[in-house]
Amino acid sequence: MAAPDQDVAPKTIVLDGSRLLETKTRLRLGDIHLRARLDQLTAQADKWLKQGPWSVTDKTICPPSGDKHDYASQAPYWWPSETSTGLPYIQRDGQRNPEVNNYTDHGLRRKLFQASLVLSLAWYYTEQEAYAKHAGDIIRTWFISKETRMKPNLNHAQIIPGVNTGRYIGIIDFSQGYTSVLDACAILAAGATGWTKSDIEGFQQWNLEFLDWLSNSSFGMKESAAENNHGTFAIMQKAAISLFLGKEETARHELLLIQSRIKDDVSPDGSQPKELVRTRSWHYCIFNLVAYSRAASMGRKVGVDLWDYKGPQGQSIHTAVDFIIPAATCTTQWIFPEMSFEAYAASDVIQASADAGNLTAKKALSKLQTPPEMDLWELRPAVEQLDDVGLSKVQWLNGR
């Protein structure tokens, strides 16, 4: 591996490694604007230094398999029914049941995703070994170490008590943020002290097995066939893992599948009908665009142009972004169902669209609401989910 002080463009998956290297160079040359952003990033990284590592074996509730190495979570929008036992549970879309927190894997997984990326980026820009060491410990504990590793499946994700022992749509627990871990590992592989050849090989093997499960299990195949954001994220995740493993043809195949979905997901006016029917329509329209934007970033690496692709009636990722811009800039009110409107949630997807050449998005940049922990786009130019239906803003700020 490269020496820690050698400038290397990491072979990242969603992030553009060459841009990370360019940003690092600008920081070394004293860019004051970027330095302020870096201070925000390292402040987050310093918080994560005091937390973790975490493991699926930390949970106190055993999954239906009886093996704590299996990931388990409870369906967030399902509540006890009015029976003596509360079973079977019934759905209340958009209303998160606090009982789901009893399954700790879901919350720890969220911390794993956020911490690994923030710490690895902080190491890359500052070369402070403590950041890389802790990022490596976090990833190693969850995915590699025999005593604490998660098995590469999601058979027991989003359990509905009294109904099932897991659901295929539970794959969204990982697909919504797992690319952050892939990018974190790619960054560490650019020369981080303590991230060894054995770690790299162990994580690659975990992903080989996980990709096989995602591609060939009944849950994986059903989730990829889903017609809303679930399907977009599931296919995007497979493309990302394939790219991480060097399977470029497989990644290209998956990304072409995403391209074929645009005409059905986006209307000619840019709306997303399958997401607008949700009680959290603002969140889910943006959420689906997070998946599309990440896929478009990967497409550039394997020759699949998702940004400029247009369906038969002009449907595109850009037009879907244009549809949300008036509400994101508070020019007009979001008139569709939404239980908790946060304008800042759209910041990253609009940044990404502007970066890909959308003039309407470029004009909107100065009017965007700043996310709670500042705008870190220039340090990590890839779309993140900036709001969370399961957390209050205060909890989000505190990394909980």
From TrEMBL:
Named from the GO MF annotations, one term is:
lyase activity
Q: Which residues form the Alginate lyase domain?
A: 55-329
User: What's a single GO CC term here?
Assistant: periplasmic space
Which InterPro entries does the UniProt entry name for this protein? Alginate_lyase_dom, Chondroitin_lyas
Any idea which UniProt keywords this protein has? Lyase, Signal
Query: Pfam families under this entry?
Result: Alginate_lyase
Keyword Zinc among record annotations? no
UniProt name for this protein = Alginate lyase domain-containing protein
